[in-house]
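We read letters as residues; the fold follows as tokens. A sample entry reads:
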Amino acid sequence: MKRAISISLGSSKRDKKVTVKFKDEEILVERVGTDGDVARARQMYLDLDGKVDAFGVGGVDLYLRLDDREYPLRAALKMVSGVTKTPLCDGRGLKHTLERRVFELARPELGDVHFQQGFVPVAVDRQGLATAVAEVCDKTVFGDLMVALGVPLPIYGIPAFKRVARIMLPFVSYFPMSMIFYGSDGAEQKPKYIKYFNESDLIAGDFLFMRKYMPARLDGKTVVTNTTTEDNIELLKSRGIKTIITTTPRYEGRSFGTNMLEAALTAYAGKGRRLSDAELNGLNEELGLRPGVVRM
């Protein structure tokens, strides 16, 4: 059996191991959190290099992509330096394929959707999802400057977001790990940016940012997110969320991160390297991968 393992800087409380079946082939998929211990994560990568079919890189990106350009995150690349045999998948391929097409792929369950305002707390690591959100909303607010940098300025619309990203990404490339990894579990909760949560009928992006900042009530809203456990779904339900869309499918009650699913697809393909966007789109269609939709 092929094996894909996501080594995450995130919390070990969110660990999960399942066997997924792609056509007639079973893939052992495992997520292992290191609770923010970069040295432990690095040692695990080195110890398992060549012994598993694909790595997922969890909790941090290796590169941030803006249109056709990729900006390296040097601190994250240092963590995985020395890995030479097993492909490294940080999920950016699926963020620009599966997430980019989330509303298209979920149309059989959702129909044609339209929202007045979308709020994406952090979009710089998920341009595909940000673009998809902007296409179904009259107005889109990006919180990157507020959430990631503490600058109290919302960004309105994709053109403005890209202008800011082009200026910031060359600097972000050199950020230390403490600035590109935002914490191991997101357990601490302090409502913030409430205005943008309240005004938006669609909220999209990383679940841990939502969990950290969302207000007590989100009645009637739609959430597009990922890496959710059964407890996370119950939390969103308790806040009054109407519909939850997970950009990756759910397996045994859990939607894994894009890095984990991309690693599983890479293991299945057996090419010994990361897959291109075209190859990932092809596999998405071949295997019938679709977002998960949970209606409350």
Summary: The chain has a mean pLDDT of 94. The chain has two domains: 2-91+257-290, 102-250.
